[in-house]
Each structure stands twice: as C-alpha cells, then as structure tokens.
Write a structure and sequence with these properties.
The complex is a heterodimer of chains A (374) and B (166). Helix content of chain A is 48%, strand content 13%. Chain A is α+β, with helices and mostly antiparallel strands. In chain A, strands 1-2-3 form a three-stranded antiparallel sheet. Chain B has a domain of 99 residues: NADH:ubiquinone oxidoreductase Nqo5 subunit (Beta Polymerase, domain 2, 2-Layer Sandwich), CATH 3.30.460. Classes of the chains: A alpha+beta (374), B alpha/beta (166). Chains A and B meet through helix 9, strand 6, strand 7, strand 8 and helix 13 of A and strand 3 of B.
Chain lengths: 374, 166
C-alpha cells in the first residue's frame, strides 16, 4: 500500500475512449469518441453514417408514389408521420386537396404512432438507467397500438398507410371500439409508469438537473420537438403552422422548466396524454364518408417548382425540400429529420458530465439513427 | 410578416443582390448573390423584424443542364437554406448560385450552429467547398470513400445500377 501511495510516477491524463457503434445505449449505430479525464467528459465527437442508405438519391430515381415506402424506413419507429411528411410536401407542391375523412384518419394514426414512439423512448431510456420493468410494460402497451395498425393496413412496423392525396384504406368496423378501450386502459397505464418513475428517488437522482439544454443552444443547433419543449419553450408545428385538421382539435403543448433530462421525460409523458385526447377526438369527429383518397392520375406529375414543408413528428420537426421539373420523378429531395438537429446538441450539453450521465442525456434526446443517416 | 412584407424589406436592404423567385408558394423564395451571402444570413438572423433564428435545413442541389429546375437557366450548383422564425412564425427559402466548376462558398456555421453538419454533408455528397468550415471531415460516407460525389447528377459508381426506364 505504501508503495502505491508514495509512487511519484502515478499521473493522470486525458484519454480517448470509443463508445459504439455497437453499444447497447446508442439506439441504432452511433459511434462517440469521448475525451475523458477520469470519469468526466471533456470533449465528445459523434460519428454518424453507419446507416446511410442514400435515400435522397433513391428518391431521384423513383416516381413520387414509388418513394412512399422508402419514407417508412427513414424513421421506422414512427413510420406514419414519416409517410405524412412526404405526402404533405407533395400535396403542397401539386395543390392536392385531401378528403376530410383522410385527414381525420391521419390524425388518429399519427397520434397513435406518436404514443408508440414515445413508449419506445420511455422503455429504452429507463432500461439505460437500470430500470427493467418499464421496458416490459411499455412494449406491452405498444403491442396494442401495433395490433390497431395491423387491423387497418396489415403492417406492424413500416405501414405505407398514408399516401399522397389521402390514406390507403378505411378503418375496419371494430377499430373504433378497440381504440376507445385502448385509450381508457392506457391512461391508467400512464399513471402506473409515473408511479414507477416520476417521483422515484433513483430516477430523480439520475435525471434532475442533468444535461440541461439552454434554449439558445437548442435553437442555434436546430433542436425541435420534445427536446426544445423540455427547455420551457412552447413550440409545436401542429399549433404554430397548423396542418391537417389540428385547428379543429383541442390540445395543449406541454413544456418543461429547466431543460434537463427529467423535463424531457415529463414532456413526453404529457404528450402521450395529449395524443390520447387527440386520437379520441379525431375518432369522434370522423366524418361519414367513403372518400379517403383524392382522385389522382396514375403517374403523378406535379408542376415545375419547389416546395418547403414540415410537420411535427414524434421526435420533432420533419420536413422536405423538393424540386420538381414537371417530370414523373422528383429532381431533388432533401429530407430534414428531427434527430439530425437533436443529435447536434449532444456535444454541447454532455461536456462536463460523467460517462454514466451521457447515457441518460443521450437517451433523453430520443435520437433514432436511421433518421440521421438516411 | 407576410410574404410581400419580407420580400419588400429584403429588397430595400439588398437591392439588386436579391432576386425573387415567382411562384405560388406561401413563403418567399429568393436568390441572394454569392458576395452578400454571409451578410444576408447575418442580417436575417439578427434583424428584429425578420428574426430567422432557426435554420431548418441546408441543401445542395446540382443543375448540370441549362433550364433544369425553376427560376433560372444556367448550369450551376445551388445552396438552399430553409429558414423559420420561432417568434414571428414565418418562413423563407433563400438560395445562392455557385459555379458549376469548383463550387465554393463561405461557411455559415458560425451564424447558425445547425449549419455545421448540413455543410459537411453537402461537401462530401456534392463537392461544394465551404470555406473556413471549423470541422470539414466527411459526415455520412465511409472514411476511405473514393468514388466522387454521389449526389451529383449523372454520378455512377461501382455498385450503382440505374433504374430501368420503361
């Protein structure tokens, strides 16, 4: 012992540590190179691109309708909003009027998908922090949502349900009853999650005042969605630039207070409650009609021009910049995804924290890597 | 601000360096000259009435043939910025034309930090050089990529199979 304590050759220095790409808490494949001083992070460099499939190049070689299934693969945890972002962009470019019933169906599906996506966040985030039980609970509830989707469009992950000009098919008769039962059940389940996590001293210790995201950094780096709302900023595209039938529906924008990991958690919990209300309202308001898709030519050729549109996906703002030359294929498609902006705030807010906190901070941003790499 | 207000305000400030694209979109689409690009970006971000504090995306576009795309008819690269304002809730698309050979432009990643990754992406996929970029490493492609700039029109690589024309 004496030999160790009095060893003058012992020294400390900064060292590099590689985290990922195959790391359980990197939610896909992300590689982080960390410069550490003991347990503390002094610098952080994210390396992305492991899931790059060049979807933008593929888009230039497909017709507008053929590209829709690829949008499922941009954010596979929330395929419905990904479909919708593309549909909304092309509808804006070509001036297509969507039947009202299709808009209501879109709201039901995207809000259910928002819940499913947030459930994955909640389960995986708590698993990262060492709580295994919520993961099992959240996947149990997500299963019901997937059953509802399967009932409607036959798919459980990549739905290809929302199409340009409407949706692919109507909901079956038993859907409404099942949705009502789910919402009633899920509200109680949310209380259960909160009983496990919200006031749990271990969870609070890992999340309160950890990874505080200042609002100006969030805006500068392009963060959006629950990430920026956690920093006490009520910004939601569904309210700010309303699309679909959101102006007719009643909902609020939950916000956090200081922008720490816990605030981003509580924002998502409250958003799930809002999404329950929205799905229920949209089901009640569903018009009696058989028209669920606008009449379009078999090969869609939008007029020459360009468009910039965006929607509120579960992770934040998702949108497209599309250039059309009047051809059946788009000339250029730029996909802007929420995680791309949200991942850029990781370095500024993680520096100075310990490596264990990095797992919590990264989990709280709810980044999905295929969306970043495209 | 409405589309017309934004355009008028920008025209007063930039005059002939600004070219407005005529289209029926609800937000203004403008071309800014390459010389005034950085001044333009700084102005639209800091001006209290414009207040474009959010860079939604930055995209490169390749127009190798005359009369492709809209609004112009030269061979060129374009850098396209989609901007929005949180406080004023308005949006704008600003574009800048670059030379077809050796396209280069000053970085704006010091004005909006979000531009950092978008510029890196355009650098490796389109070969647009962003001068004074703080971290000009490739972002998405593998480190030993040696097959040129895949997002350029007419690009072919070893594994690239074009979609058959029916």
């Amino acid at each position: 012992m004496d030999r160790v304590l009095n060893n003058t050759e012992l020294r400390d220095e900064e060292f590099l540590i590689n985290m990922g790409p195959q790391h359980p808490s990197t939610h896909g494949v992300l590689r982080l190179v960390l410069k550490m001083e003991g347990e503390f992070i002094r610098d952080l460099v994210p390396h992305v691109g492991y899931l790059h499939r060049s979807i933008e190049k593929i888009a230039e070689n497909r017709t507008y309708n053929q590209f829709m299934p690829y949008t499922d693969r941009i954010d596979y945890c929330a395929s419905m909003p990904s479909n919708q972002a593309w549909a909304v962009a092309i509808e804006k470019l070509a001036g297509i009027e969507v039947p009202e019933k299709a808009e209501y169906l879109r709201v039901i599906m995207t809000e259910l998908n928002r819940i499913a996506s947030h459930l994955i966040y909640l389960g995986v985030m708590s698993l990262d922090l060492g709580a295994v039980t919520p993961f099992l609970y959240t996947f149990r509830e997500r299963e019901w949502i997937l059953d509802l989707f399967e009932m409607t469009c036959g798919q459980r992950l990549t739905y290809h349900y929302i199409r340009i000009g409407g949706v692919s098919r109507d909901i079956p008769p038993e859907f409404g009853k099942s949705l009502k039962a789910f919402v009633a059940d899920f509200r109680k389940k949310l209380d259960d999650y909160e009983a496990i996590l919200t006031e749990n001293p271990i969870f609070l210790g890992r999340t309160k005042n950890v990874g505080v995201l200042p609002l100006d950094v969030a805006k500068d780096c392009g963060a959006s969605g629950p990430t920026i709302r956690g920093s006490n900023f009520a910004w939601d595209i569904r309210k700010a630039e309303p699309y679909s039938v959101y102006p007719k529906l009643n909902f609020t924008i939950p916000t956090g207070k200081v922008g720490d990991v816990w605030d981003r958690y509580i924002v998502r919990i409250q958003e799930m409650r809002q999404s329950c209300n929205l799905a229920e309202q949209a089901l009640d308001g569903l018009p009696e009609s058989d028209v669920i898709r606008a009449k379009l030519p078999a090969v869609l050729k939008p007029p020459a021009g360009e468009v910039f549109s965006r929607i509120e996906a579960p992770r934040g703002e998702m949108g497209y910049y599309v250039v059309s030359t009047g051809d059946k294929k788009p000339y250029r498609v730029k996909i802007r995804t929420a995680s791309y902006g949200n991942l850029q705030v990781l370095a500024p807010i993680s520096i100075g924290w310990k490596i264990g906190d990095l797992v919590a901070i990264f989990g709280s941003l709810d980044v999905i890597l295929p969306e970043v790499d495209r | 601000m409405t589309k017309e207000d934004i355009i008028r305000k920008l025209q007063d400030k930039f005059g002939s360096d600004l070219e407005v694209v005529q289209n029926n979109q609800p937000e203004p689409f403008v071309y800014i000259s390459k010389d005034k690009y950085r001044e333009f970006c700084r102005h639209v971000k800091t001006d209290p009435e414009l207040d474009f504090d959010f860079l939604f995306q930055l995209a490169g576009v390749h127009y190798p043939m005359p009369s492709a795309g809209s609004g112009s008819s030269d061979e060129r690269f374009e850098v396209v910025l989609s901007l929005s304002s949180h406080a004023k809730i308005h949006r704008m698309v600003a574009k800048v034309k670059l030379d077809i050979i050796d396209p280069e432009i000053e970085t704006i990643s010091d004005i909006w930090a979000a531009a950092n990754w978008y510029e890196r992406e355009s650098m490796e996929l389109f070969g647009i050089k962003f001068l004074h970029h703080p971290d000009p490493r490739p972002l998405l492609l593998v480190e030993d990529w040696e097959f040129g700039y895949p997002m350029r029109k007419g690009w072919t690589g070893p594994d690239f199979i074009p979609m058959p024309e029916k």
